[in-house]
Amino acid sequence: MAASIPAMLRNWLDELRATGYRGLVVLHSVSPVYAGGLLARIFSDVYGDVLCLAPREAREGLRSECSRLESPGAIDRLLGTENSSVVLVVPQLLRPNLLAAAAETVRGGGVVALAVPPLGEWQPGGRDSIGAYRRYLVNRLGAARALFWADYDAGILYRQALPRERASPPPGPEGYRPRSPVHRRLLEAAATLDQARALDEIVLHLRRRGRSVFVTGDRGRGKSGLLGLVAAYLAASHMVGFVPVTAPSPGSVQGFFRVLDMALERLGVRHWAIERGGFVAGVAGPWFHFRYHTPDRVEPGAFTIIDEAAAVGPMRLRRLASRSPRLLAATTIHGYEGSGRVLAKMIEAILPEPRLVVGLEHPVRYPPGDPLEEWLYETFMLRAEAPRPPSWPPESLDAVELDRLRLADDYATLAQVYGILVQAHYRNEPDDLALILDAPHHRLYALLADGTPVAVVDASLESGDTAYEARIMPDLLAQASPRAMEARGMRVVRIAVHPELQRRGLGSKLLSYVEEQARSMGLDWLGAVFGQPDVLGFWRRNGFHVVYVSPLPSKATGEHNIAVAKPLTSLGYEVVYTAARDMLRKLLLAGHSLYRGLTAEAYAAVLEGSPELAQQPLAVLTEEQKHRLRLVLEGRLDVEAVLDVLWLLLVNHILSSGGLRILEEKDRWIAAARVLQGKTMSDIAAGLRVPIQEARERLRHLLERLSKDHAAG
Ligand SMILES: CC(=O)SCCNC(=O)CCNC(=O)[C@H](O)C(C)(C)COP(=O)(O)OP(=O)(O)OC[C@H]1O[C@@H](n2cnc3c(N)ncnc32)[C@H](O)[C@@H]1OP(=O)(O)O
């Protein structure tokens, strides 16, 4: 009986290839490594090549069966490659990111296969899983349209499904008539008609002095390839010299460089590739040089290219956009590195005018309507969007904890919950869904309006000593609070309110329910870590204090992480207040060194504090300082002559009142940036878009105000 599974699989593959679509194979066995080898052998026969991804201990047994063998951790090496078949040998954790990335590389007619333990033992969520992800995945397999699913040892075929129709390939570039002076040979190098048309439009835009181009599309639409074609045009037309290229990882620009290389070859332009660590890091010619830099290192050029802009983060993008005369950017709208229309709109707004936005629709490697792509998108909810909001006001509004095992069986509700969570954040990936469903230390809460989720919290239990619990907040709190490791708490990993229902108290309502739950569990604190200082107002309004600000920007986003916490028990009070008071001092005293990189707005926002953080001032003014201060107040000296005095007055004011809350917003920014961060007046004036004279007057006003308070005190 067992012998028939391979024979059935071969037949299935023949039929699948005839349809032109791609399929998914799941083969269970007590030895996933053996099953993986078997699959690799069959795929080698059928397709002539097979890429295997297997953990180290399994690789020896597979070496002779696979054309290429990589570690499952090497997602970066997958990006930009193209394969007929991929076998993933996954005895334990099946990371959705890996499955999505592997499938992305497979051509029409090909397969992605999983060699996994027997169905009863299969735990794709890994050792500590609560089993909800496994349940979800098995449910979802039932919905796949091109699936071969069997147990090799038992000789059982669970399911065999094939698309009924034959695929029709997307139209090619042949015969397209360009409007721009783009070379015919370059147009014909386009993978689809869609790409050729976009290339033509972009060339026209750049020829007419367009400043920026933004290419959008789902994964696998040839965005990076299109950037490569445009780059080849720019090089061949002598329109560029040195061009910095950035994207989240070197792996993610391999497709770009491959197409650039191919296109320059076609155009007969002399060029060479520059390799680094097994990756192409640049393509250069006699008068041009396209060079990859990581997002944290890239400096803007006369022309800058940014791939996967969503994953580079809006902060960095803004910096690059403000300093590059011309930009070419692309991003995934739905996919596994950053997602969401909200984000696309945000990026669009950052790019300078005149700007051209082009969308790519047709997949490059496989036919439109491919069942494997459909399955992956639906399973990992890569097109997740917030649900339609219920009519408002609702009849009922209830905060609940969601039962994740039940959610695994309720696709519609899970999609609504996930849709709300992902639309609010710009870095989402398939792994997030598995984490939310399965991580043992996570809890999921929602606010239901007439039964429809309108606000969602994903939270994680954290403490200093448990193996299962994460330790992000405890580690941060422990930098200042000696007893932080004794305390237990809950970190709000994400909170999001339906985009059409924000600022109506829903976020606060759900947060107070989460707080109630945390109190009933006897937890000491509730906390959160995030990158956007603009939501600090929300946390403060709900009684949270800043307990940590990262001096270094995050490599991934360019933002400085901010941690906030609220105490729930007496131990919590001790830990949170100790950390918050210490943080306030550190922010003040190291403002000009550690925290100089923060924008004035962000720095002033974290300094806002609250009266509970009030503490002893530093020192009194000397007689000489008082004398200088008098001269300035009488108008006989410039404010800059008493910056030291102003520093002391401001620091003492903040320490004794627990934060910088006086004055209007712009005054606070200028005070923080000039006096505490030591930025120059001209940088501040430029950054805040105020005339330098106004900035000086505001500083003088601050001095008058503080010295009056000082005299009164
Ligand atoms: C760990 C993390 O996830 S941090 C990231 C938080 N999430 C996001 O930024 C996603 C997008 N935003 C949202 O989903 C929501 O707006 C949330 C979760 C930030 C806030 O929920 P909401 O229901 O909109 O806020 P709510 O109405 O309860 O706000 C109460 C008060 O907080 C303050 N506040 C709320 N949102 C903000 C904000 N974005 N910026 C500054 N202050 C805010 C205001 O003072 C507000 O009172 P007001 O409206 O009377 O002025």
TrEMBL record:
Cellular component aspect of the GO annotation: cytoplasm
Gene Ontology MF terms: 18S rRNA cytidine N-acetyltransferase activity; ATP binding; mRNA N-acetyltransferase activity; tRNA binding; tRNA cytidine N4-acetyltransferase activity
Q: SUPFAM superfamilies this protein is in?
A: Acyl-CoA N-acyltransferases (Nat), P-loop containing nucleoside triphosphate hydrolases
Concerning Pfam families, the annotation shows:
Acetyltransf_1, NAT10_TcmA_helicase, TmcA_N
The signal sequence is none
**What PROSITE patterns does the record point to?**
GNAT (PS51186)
Q: Where in the cell is it found?
A: Cytoplasm
Positions bound to ATP: 195, 365
Question: Which residues are listed for acetyl-CoA binding in this entry?
Answer: 495-497, 541
**Taxonomy, superkingdom:** Archaea
Q: Which GO terms describe its biological process?
A: rRNA acetylation involved in maturation of SSU-rRNA; tRNA acetylation; tRNA wobble cytosine modification
Output the PANTHER family linked to this UniProt entry.
N-ACETYLTRANSFERASE 10 (PTHR10925), RNA CYTIDINE ACETYLTRANSFERASE (PTHR10925:SF5)
Name of the featured protein: tRNA(Met) cytidine acetyltransferase TmcA
Lineage, opening ranks: Archaea, Thermoproteota, Thermoprotei, Desulfurococcales, Pyrodictiaceae
